[in-house]
Amino acid sequence: xxxxxxxxxxxxxxxxxxxxxxxxxxxxxxxxxxxxxxxxxxxxxxxxxxxxxxxxxxxxxxxxxxxxxxxxxxxxxxxxxxxxxxxxxxxxxxxxxxxxxxxxxxxxxxxxxxxxxxxxxxxxxxxxxxxxxxxxxxxxxxxxxxxxxxxxxxxxxxxxxxxxxxxxxxxxxxxxxxxxxxxxxxxxxxxxxxxxxxxxxxxxxxxxxxxxxxxxxxxxxxxxxxxxxxxxxxxxxxxxxxxxxxxxxxxxxxxxxxxxxxxxxxxxxxxxxxxxxxxxxxxxxxxxxxxxxxxxxxxxxxxxxxxxxxxxxxxxxxxxxxxxxxxxxxxxxxxxxxxxxxxxxxxxxxxxxxxxxxxxxxxxxxxxxxxxxxxxxxxxxxxxxxxxxxxxxxxxxxxxxxxxxxxxxxxxxxxxxxxxxxxxxxxxxxxxxxxxxxxxxxxxxxxxxxxxxxxxxxxxxxxxxxxxxxxxxxxxxx
Length: 478
What we know:
The protein folds into 2 domains: about 10-190, 2-Layer Sandwich (Beta-Lactamase); about 265-465, Orthogonal Bundle (Hypothetical protein af1432). By secondary structure, it is α+β, with helices and mostly antiparallel strands. It is rod-shaped, with a radius of gyration of 54 Å. The chain has helices at about 15-70, 85-90, 185-260, 270-285, 295-305, 315-320, 325-335, 335-350, 355-365, 385-400, 415-420, 430-440, 440-450, 455-460; strands spanning about 5, 10, 100-105, 110, 130-135, 140, 150-160, 160-170, 175-180. The chain contains 14 helices and 9 strands.
């Protein structure tokens, strides 16, 4: 499994998480940028909205002055001729965006007001000393000092609070026209101006996120495709080299085992026959024994070749003796399983745990144990003896019976079958004897073929014995 990349406390566990993280990061960047831009833009839009509002109110005042000139071509006084008409005009005139309109007399008191008829006390309110902070200059002037000219705008502190005022002086009527700008009207204008770009900005942000999402998906898929092809090539090359390395290793193991075998047999073909007989027994156990599968049989074929490597530590005077061994010589001979197992254990300590070496240790150490517990070196019995060693023991007995030695003639296949049948439950595992009897015809064919074939034929027929096993074998018990 490939390692999972980590980012702080965020664990990228899948491609979907990677894409989501990318989109969220993009959304965060867009959000921060959008927030900063919105703050700046809103301030600019607010200023533009105020300016535009002032322009609209100024045009409204100009329009009011045209109407006022028709009704009051001379100075206007409270209650005098024309005042009623002007008061009615103030009450009915519609200023832009809800601004309210007030007329001040020459002394700065309210002359006309939309609510004056209902509240005559408004006449007592004096605006003459009200200071206006002009925009955008910041200059301060009082309402009573404003003279003819352009309309002035700014903020003033009134009884009702801070208000934005637009003030103009009409010299013919001797009145000052004051427009009190509505905060609601200004906010409405700001909302209308900002609503459009906020909507388009949000749409643009969503569009960018959508493009980011689609682009991330396409890039991840493209990357996965390239990575998958690269992994396939790498896995193929690793598998090729692994198989090649295992083939060389297994060939060396088999060759070294044959060197040991040549000291003890007449033909040097003993190992090839053992490998083949173990294969036949293993195939009979397929589906009947849980640990046996094709990979396990392949390991068994090679591990069986190592069963007698411990004989390299036995003196020739004992190993090659034609007659019976003395008790002392027998004790020396019976050390070869331990010598072989110690050799393989030393190899395992150097190279690490390995299924083939583990099985080789089992076979080398226990192939002379007997099912009834009378074997050597540890007098194991029954299921205490590893299955691989029990199989090699039967294969070794069959080959010893059917092969010629300096001290004996070869037994026929039928004689060997009867002797193995007789050893059922004593020397040999009953289950394996039954498997042998089921496959005895195949054993006879293999015996005839391997005893009569040339050395070259045997190498060709048994080349599988030293080829590498599958890369993912089922692990056998150590």
